[in-house]
Amino acid sequence: MQTKLGNLVLDRWVDGDGDGKLLTSAVDGAPIAAISSAGLDFGDILHHARSRGGDNLRRLTFHQRGEMLKALAQYLMEHKKEFYELSTATGATRSDSWVDIDGGISTLFVFSSKGRREMPNDHVYLDGPPERISKNGTFTAQHIFTPKLGAAVHINAFNFPCWGMLEKLAPTLLAGVPAIVKPASSTAYLTELMVRRINASGILPDGALQLICGGVGDLFEHLNCQDTIAFTGSKNTAEFLQQHPKVISESVAFTAETDSLNSSILGPDAVPGTPEFDLYIKEVTREMTSKAGQKCTAIRRVIAPSAIAADVVAALSTALGEIRIGNPASREVDMGALASQGQRDEVRDRVAELSQQADVVYGGSDSFDVVDADADKGAFFMPTLLHCEKPLTSSAVHSVEAFGPVSTVLPYDNIDEAIELSRLGEGSLAGSIVTNDDAVARELVLGTAAYHGRMVVINRHCAAESTGHGSPLPHLIHGGPGRAGGGEEMGGIRGVLHYMQRTAVQGSPETLTAIGHRWIRGADENDPGVHPFRKTFEQLNIGDTLTTDTREVTLADIQHFAEFTGDTFYAHTDEEAAAKNPFFDGRVAHGYLIVSFAAGLFVDPDFGPVLANYGVDELRFAQPVNYGDSLRVRLACKQKTLRAGTGYGEVRWDAEVTNQDDDVVAQYDVLTMVATDEQWASVQ
Ligand code: NAP
């Protein structure tokens, strides 16, 4: 009897009803498993995610969720061999699988580390500084982000069964939101295997991850305003789902990553014989053939100067001629199969449509050599290059996506034309420009950026380290306007915030400090009883404040600082010249002298729990300090971030330096590392 893929629902593996639909290998058509989600209660699945999964995840801080992602990534790394083995059945070569499997796992690592570095060890994320909205500062405002109290429904495309899941899962879990994953049917077996391993690891809390293999039944009927849908697939499906009555009536957040006719522009300077010309040919060839061209970011439109379009066609044809097609498990093969026979038929139809307006100049044949595989059984497709003589007046080349190893060369006569051609794609995920002329690069980027989610400019100087046209990175946003769906994913912490709600909270500084765990000017200044530098991380309270004695700044101090540091800028050394400066009446103290004197005023010199000062943030000099002025510092404990397992935490202090008239002359955050109780006890 045929194996059926499991559905992970309510923390149990459940088979769908009936025989299900048979999934077969892309390489030889052999049956792999059947898929069915019939009989599942989709309302229960959503309820379980929201209640069990959401509750469990929200109990953790951002840092604990980050640790969880890291543990998961490490666990999956240990099991990646079996993912690679099964991945071959999707038609993927080893390097295609590397993008999918290692690329997906590394996305978990990146979100883990970004979450722990850039988010607080807390449950609320503060969006920027407080907004001053009252005259006296007793009523203020702070934007905050908290996790949505719903589920994230992830509907994924077939081409990246692992990465497609993990790139959505990482920011979702970091946000504290449970996920319901629905992989594309044709390659769901690989996603299912990975989810089985994730589930077996026990790393994620109950309810955090559920998997539906097959259709989503009436799931959409149960959505509410706290849920999020992140969709990757075709524009038609996205439009259909976006118009679901529940999505509309409940304003369900909907992110779509859809079709994209990405372009790559070759600069006019990059003629044959230049490194850029060779880089371009390499990049287009790689984009056409990696993952057999089934990449949403692949180059579909090759925009090249008319004068050398023939050279581009010739060089690409030669490079494509060297690509060995066949069994992706074979080391001799450069390009595997499309994901299914159906997909091959689909690509064939799209090429036929494209060839109404463009000539096939390479490939396009059903008869080609296939290494170590049966061409009739596997979903193999020959790389196919087209050339469109009049691209400005041909619509198909800008709107028909052949989701396989297919691209069209579009010649341009001048930069404006290149820009126009790129824009005719009506919104793309990724665009690239290959030029060694930075003025051209700027003109092209400014002319086309509004139509792109990501752009890469490649030249001889960055090529060796370039991540290439088609690689979405967890640090950078993935998504694009128009045809690309109008969505945005990843982009570091930006991607996490898509699963959270931003709320403007107004109240007194004291109240907002209590809510956000970040001290706001105007909130209570607590007398800690002892110098705050004598306190350990745990003993310190947000709002603990030190107000120092005063120190006069003398002319001798300014002269000494100038000579000692070598900063003899005229404003500190030349009375007459300084007075001509519109900001000063005469010689003024160096800004860094003010900061140095401030440190001299506020530090406690003896050995203590404060381990180090690792920087200052937001330093501003509000007004000049003249000799004879007297400085005082108010230092308040602003924010604490425990670095679990290290023996210390980061403490951010709000420093305000005032003069004898109580005017603020400098403001900044002092960043320190402070020992925990345990660490401090161990070194005394
Ligand atoms: P698709 O047919 O739109 O399928 C995408 C996903 O939607 C699959 O999981 C599919 O499940 C699901 N789906 C289809 N109908 C649905 C419905 N009525 N309700 C709920 N889910 C539904 O796309 P595809 O042809 O498989 O994928 C290729 C397309 O995806 C290409 O056009 C490509 O450009 C695009 N793509 C975009 C990106 C990106 O990041 N922008 C990435 C990869 C692919 P089933 O498989 O079970 O039908």
Radius of gyration: 30 Å
What would you call the structural class? alpha/beta
Low-confidence stretches at least 5 residues in length (pLDDT < 50)? Answer: none
**What is the CA-CA span between the terminal residues?**
69 Å
Give the overall pLDDT as a whole number.
Answer: 96
Q: What is the class of the largest domain in the CATH system?
A: Alpha Beta
What number of domains? 3
CATH third-level topology of the largest domain: Aldehyde Dehydrogenase, Chain A, domain 1
**Overall spatial form:** globular
Name of the CATH homologous superfamily of the largest domain: Aldehyde Dehydrogenase, Chain A, domain 1
Total count of strands: 27
- Relative strand content: 15-25%
Q: Please give the count of helices.
A: 21
- Characterize the biggest β-sheet: 7 strands, mixed
CATH architecture of the largest domain: 3-Layer(aba) Sandwich
Unique bound compounds: NADP nicotinamide-adenine-dinucleotide phosphate
